[in-house]
């Protein structure tokens, strides 16, 4: 009897651009999905396989529980069999609030608090007493914020001016705000007398309010006539409204506005921890909870292993597991107190992966979306070991990846294509690495690394002197102007601190393209995101005499039935949600009236259905032509103007973001890992864009791990030698050719790639 093959069976997949795809995916293997950005990888892996697995998992719960859980619509497919539970590690940046740390994200901090509440001396009541959100736990001086912000009179008041002449420099308390107008019209103060000429009594009343035990009222003029309000003094009012609260949550007034008229310093009571001093007295082996959180991870492991009390040991063992996961991912130099928002892209990616590795369950399908994103070649090696470890524990590992090192370790490769968008959506190859031939990925695997042997001449420099941001060790460096510069080094080596902080502070005119998202939505399209839609609406308005809002499906032109969504989601109570195209507009989103108007023989729908390549030939307006050319330059010529941003792949979003920044006129472009999410073939197009920018007289600086970009640069600056405390130094400066004789980590991998093509 033949052995039954355990594999995931998928038939007739039609999500997004998929063209009736059939696939058998073997279990307990490393499966790499590759192909051009937008070729259909995510449509198979996320929109079909992961969505259906999650949908079926929720069916195991009672209906009243299901109503509280995310609800998934059944993907468009004929058959989906033998799915197993999925764990998805997406490419999206780690979210979380500004207080989120490595310890909170990894769920280690609750265990540490529990440990201190059980075995710490002197004893503190419960684990929640170690939280700054707890009334006992928070510092009474700073309210748990760790910093004391106090108003600075010399920054807030110009004593030479009168109230009417904006003596109060803080906007809400100046004549432009209602409180400033009240001070001028309430009768307590002369609005035209310079503050320096106020009597001692009047000055005290203005700044501090009435003396103790007294109350003073002044009429505030409203549309219902004057109403008496109690005057409390500028400083007490400012403190109450703008300081005694989380100033990061202020809306109309920014945090910067408040800090501009204040003095900020570390809270002396809690030393910046935000915790009650009584909590800080509680210690384990001489360390309080703040000192524990500040240790590097191997030091925490040592402390946790030293705990021998039975109750403490059982809690410590649970924490040890999570800490080890971070150390195994090469993040031993981090501490639990490290803010998530300060991590580099590569560090954040590895923290995210580590979070999912603690499970001892097997027969799980792990899905990784470009786990190599933001990782140095040295760190990709660690990632590969982790993927193999998961497979060895009898799990299926599915990876969407462009990194050639990861592709090479796959047990099976599935390449989607042949092109992207409407030209993709098919399986062009499935099998072993050695059988891969005549496809974009095969070409990439055989791609020879081209070292730039004729770098541009350097005539002048941007200068950075003695900077010590984060882990930078008082470094100075000259960065060449008007050439292509690569900044490289392992994750946490100081690249972001040097360039995204120190450099942009010195050169604020820099056009910076970071790693953040673009705010994707099913109501946002390529045309709206690039600002092209405003011009299209203006053209139609001028041509037809109708208001511009009529040509927007987010405004007056929306289909009255679906309200401009193009689809309807009827209430199906507890059943699976279902999305159906709107019959009234046929999914176009527009009302019938809008479609009756034309410009150059096309209505607005027909224009939005144009691909970028077609739009270049159709439009005559220079402003539109320039913007669509920018989209073509970054390799998005196959997308339509009306394509929603929510339907784009990670690589397409990355290039759309680049296009929006590259249309700005500037002289300095700084890009943080522009190769993220891109296939090698797409990278070549992007490199051409950068070279053209430099040829037009601009300076282009990229923070990159991608060896193709580094090799093609005119100048390379490497930071290191390690990450965290081991980083923060300049370890190499020079041309890519110079790297072939260097002994740095990036040089090691560059030489390795060059050597492979000559042996």
UniProtKB/TrEMBL annotation:
Record domain ABC transporter: where: 2-443, 455-746
GO molecular function, one term: ATP hydrolysis activity
Subcellular location, record wording: Cytoplasm
Organism: Lederbergia citrea
Gene3D superfamilies hit by this protein: ABC transporter ATPase domain-like, ABC transporter ATPase like domain, P-loop containing nucleotide triphosphate hydrolases
GO biological process, one term: DNA repair
One annotated Gene Ontology cellular component of this protein: cytoplasm
Matching PANTHER family: UVRABC SYSTEM PROTEIN A (PTHR43152)
Protein name per the record: UvrABC system protein A
SUPFAM superfamilies hit by this protein: P-loop containing nucleoside triphosphate hydrolases
InterPro entries (UniProt xref): AAA+_ATPase, ABC_transporter-like_ATP-bd, P-loop_NTPase
SMART domains for the chain: AAA (SM00382)
Alphabetical UniProt keywords: ATP-binding, Cytoplasm, DNA damage, DNA excision, DNA repair, DNA-binding, Excision nuclease, Nucleotide-binding, Repeat
Domain of life assignment: Bacteria
Family to which the UniProt record says this protein belongs: Belongs to the ABC transporter superfamily. UvrA family.
